[in-house]
Write a structure and sequence with these properties.
heterodimer, A: alpha/beta, Rossmann fold, five-stranded parallel β-sheet, B: mainly alpha
Chain lengths: 123, 187
């Protein structure tokens, strides 16, 4: 697995950003950028070249779902692997995310093994 | 929110009572008595609601409860940060250990990081509770307004969110969401 790529992680909880960052570092990723909501993430996404996006769903003002749709509808790097990590565990959410083009979906709480497995499956 | 205030209901009852006043029929007398009893019940409720300082529910109790819950979220976030600070220090020290010990220390600190995700989940659950309390605050305000208490801002209680917003519901209770295994089958 190529761990030299830039990874964008998005969550409105600092705790979760720090957890994901630490787990990614243990996997081997070094270039990790954080964003606190979809808007900030989209701005950073369009300003750089990311190889993987990992995002929460439930954020204000722009959700991870809207971020996903914006990236997929955009002109830049629209097919970037996008993993949703969220507490939203209703079937309807998973189906909507899949229809919007999510690469994989992790329900919180999750462990390092699950995160690593999903990343390997989308890269 | 009802279309009618307490005063309007009382006026209507008085109006009906005045119309049946003077009628001799036993049935109309019975109707008049029932209406008088209904009017007294409404007045008693009004008095009792005001006497119980019901405004305190929306003015003091619920705002205090939501502030306390917000403080819980803040405190757990701070505690989680300190736990992760320590875990990162241990990870740094692990670099100085032999490979076997280093692997063991990294495994254990990974478990610490995984466990700290409780803060995110509890934070989202508490946010849902705060929202519910604010809905109750609106209902209490509407009730007080109906019974002649001080005017309060009307807060619509119906779900006005659009379809995408309705997908944001936070953590589900045990048995209400799908498992990671179920999600994996969809991919």
């Amino acid at each position: 697995m190529n761990t030299n790529m830039k990874v964008l992680i998005v969550d409105d909880y600092n705790t979760m950003l720090r957890i994901i960052r630490n787990l990614l570092q243990q996997i081997g990723f070094k270039d990790i950028t954080e964003a606190a909501d979809g808007e900030e993430a989209l701005e950073k996404f369009n300003a750089d070249d990311f190889g993987l996006v990992i995002s929460d769903w439930n954020m204000e003002p722009m959700s991870g779902y809207d971020l996903l749709k914006s990236i997929r509808a955009g002109n830049k790097n629209a097919s970037v692997p996008f993993i949703m990590i969220t507490a939203e565990s209703k079937t309807e959410n998973v189906i909507k995310a899949k229809q919007a083009g999510v690469s994989n979906y992790i329900v919180k709480p999750f462990n390092a093994e699950t995160l690593k497995g999903k990343i390997e499956s989308v890269l | 929110m009802s279309k009618y205030s307490r005063e309007q209901v009382m006026d209507t009852i008085s109006s009906v009572m005045s119309k049946v006043e003077g009628e001799q029929a036993e049935s109309l007398r019975h109707v008049r008595d029932e209406l008088a009893a209904l009017a007294k019940t409404i007045e008693d409720m009004h008095t009792e609601i005001l006497a119980t300082r019901s405004h305190d529910v929306s003015d003091i109790h619920i705002p205090t409860a939501t502030d306390e819950l917000d403080a819980v979220v803040g405190a757990t976030e701070q505690a989680s940060a300190k736990i992760m600070d320590s875990a990162e220090v241990i990870q740094g020290l692990a670099d100085q250990a032999d490979e076997k010990l280093k692997a063991a220390l990294m495994d254990e600190t990974t478990k610490i990081f995984e466990a700290c995700s409780f803060q995110d989940i509890t934070g989202q659950r508490i946010t849902k509770v705060v929202k519910t309390l604010r809905d109750i605050e609106g209902s209490v305000g509407n009730l007080l307004h109906l019974f002649g208490g001080k005017p309060v801002d009307f807060q619509p209680l119906e779900d006005t969110r659009d379809e995408d917003e309705k997908l944001k519901n936070g953590p589900q209770l045990e048995g209400q969401g799908v498992s990671q295994d179920d999600i994996d089958k969809l991919f």
